[in-house]
Each structure stands twice: as structure tokens, then as C-alpha cells.
Amino acid sequence: MNHNRITVLGSFVADLAFRVDRLPARGETILGPSFVLGPGGKGSNQAVAAARSGGHVSFITKLGRDPFGDIARKLYADEGIDTGHVYEATVPTGAAAILIDAASGDNAIIVVPGACFTITTDEVDAARELIAGSSVLMAQLELPLEIVEHGLALARSLGVATILNPAPAAALPEHLYQLADYITPNESEAEALTGVAVVTLADAERAADVFLARGVKNAIITLGAQGAFVKNATMSAHVVALDAGAVVETTGAGDAFNGGLAVALTEGLPLEAAVRFGCATAAISVTRPGTAPSMPHRAEIDCLLASHAGTTTQPATA
Q: Which residues bind substrate (predicted)?
């Protein structure tokens, strides 16, 4: 096993980001000051975040043979991401329309998955040797649920740790939770999956307890500017956020967190320290526009962590 190998099973879509002075109301058309086309998709973003954070990353996905797919191929070549199991589809590469509030950095997103949604269980199985040689398999919910479940189950059968980022939130069968060593929802995803509205730390703990009762080994609920809450059978903690500067755009923050978390876990950091590393990765990403382009490099993360060395965790109390 390569103890710094991370395999990501996930999506690539081209991001079409529209920056606006405010998000439009239903049925309303407004003019925006800027538009950017770039690489996106939760799986792809997490692969880039992990690679820049210091991980040895392989990506399993499917692309069309079209200009959007070519954006992905160039990105992976530039970032040193292994593409031995990036398959070619006969349908177009997907796309995401992202509306960004220029003042707050908040966003609204529509995703059409396209080519990545045509990946098959046989294609996942073809990556068995790759997965077996990894220390972590990370998946999200921008692929068909049967593919996500198949990948997690394969990794589990091979003794490989699994991270499930349940985004975008969707109803999951109970047995799927038992395949997740780590689950990483944000507040809204945690509420959608558990029925617990996450407003306070006590709420986050209640939501975490639901995940643990369903068979997840480690529940990590990301809390935006409040950091993250983490709980397993033996510990619970509130990992406070790090301040890396003014927020420009929150798109991709969760992907940055997950990529950083995966790297820290493969490097053997204790869980709280790994979550803190993920928080630092996300904190830097939100100070920049874009998704994949906003992901920080390892030296930046280490510098931010060093500058906040006195701020670690807080007791998990309401």
C-alpha cells in the first residue's frame, strides 16, 4: 500500500461561474459583471485539492471527447494527477452553472453531470489494483448512487479507508453508511440526511450521533466560518476555523476541506489534527475566486497552520 496514495471516485463538470451583485429572485433576469469558464465537479475539485496539499492522487471518472473534457485532461496533466482510470464517454462532458453573490460570496449551483454519470461498475472494478494500493478512497454523490456504493464496498473489501462526502445531499440506503469510515457533510447536508437542523454545536453533535448510530465510524460536520465538529466512538471535538483573510467566494470550500482531510489522514495525523488541516485548506480556498483554481498548495497550508498554532480545538459543548 502507498501510504500517501489517495484515489478519488467522482465527477468532473465544467464550471460556468456567473458573478452577480445579488442572486436573482424566481423568474427574474439580471445582468452580471463577469463570467468565468473553468474546471469543476466535486470529485475533480477534491482531487486537485488533495494533489496540491501534498497527496499522490489518482482519479476515477469519465469524460466526453469535447472541449469541456479537454479542460479536465489539461488540468490533471498540470496538477500531476494520475488519469489511468479516467475513461472516455460517448456523451458530452457535464457542466455546472454557478451564480455567485459578489458581496457575500454565497452561491447557487445547478449541475448536469453528463459523461461522468455513465461510468459503470465494471470500470470501477478495473481500478481494483489501484484502489488496493491506496490508503484512502474518497467519493461524493455526483455519480450514480450504485457506483458510489460499489466503489466504497470495493475499497472496504480491500481494507482501504473510505471518505464519503454526501454532497449534494440525497437519500441514502441505511447500509451505505456502514461503508463510510468518514462522512463529511456540511450543515445543510447533515440536516437533509439526519433531520437535525444544525444551528449550534449541540445540534452538530446530535446529527453526528445519528451518523454514528447508522454505522459511520467518524462523523465530521463542516460548519463554515465556525470550523468543524468531529465525533467518533471515543472522542468529540469542535475544531475551530482559521482566518486566512477576507472571503471572496465559498464555492469549492467543502471540496478543499475534503481534499486536505484526505491528505492529512494518509499522512497519519490524528483525527482532530487532520480535520484542522482540512479547515486550513478550506480557509485559504475561500479567499480566492473559482473552485479548482482556488485550491491552495501545501506550503500555504503549512504557513497558515503555523500562524494559528495556538488555536486548536474546543470542548464539544453547546
A: 13-15, 41-45, 142, 255
Instruction: Specify the amino acid at residue 122.
Output: D
- What DSSP designation does 143 have? S
Instruction: Determine if residue 41 is labeled as part of a ligand binding site.
Output: yes
Which residue is it, cell 447500509? 175
**18 within a domain of the structure (yes/no):** no
Q: Which of 318, 313, 186 is nearest to 240 (CA)?
A: 313
28 membership: H or E segment, kind and range:
none
What is residue 229's DSSP assignment? E
Q: Is 288 annotated as a binding residue?
A: yes
CB atoms within 10 A of CB 236: 21
Three-class secondary structure of residue 250 per DSSP: coil
* pLDDT digits 0-9 by tens, 158-217: 999 999 999 999 999 999 999 999 999 999 999 999 999 999 999 999 999 999 999 999
Write down the pTM of the prediction: 0.91
- Average pLDDT value for residue range 299-317: 77
Q: 207 burial class (0-12, 13-18, 19+ CB within 10 angstroms)?
A: buried
Q: What is the mean pLDDT of the chain?
A: 93
Residue 258 grid cell = 475534503
Mean pLDDT across the stretch 97-121? 89
Residue 294 labelled as part of a binding site = yes
pLDDT band at 309 (very low <50, low <70, confident <90, very high): confident
Is 254 flagged in the annotation as binding? yes
From the number of C-beta atoms within 10 Å of its C-beta (0-12, 13-18, 19+), residue 34 rates as: exposed
Spatial contact of 83 and 59, defined as CB atoms under 8 Å apart:
yes
Q: Is residue 259 part of a domain?
A: yes
Helix ranges, 83-182 (H)? 121-125, 128-132, 145-157, 174-177
223: in domain: yes
Q: Domain total for the chain?
A: 1
Angular region, 181: left φ>0, alpha ψ -120 to 50, beta rest? alpha
Task: Report, as residue numbers or ranges, the catalytic residues.
Answer: 255
Cis peptide before 168 (omega within 30 of 0): yes
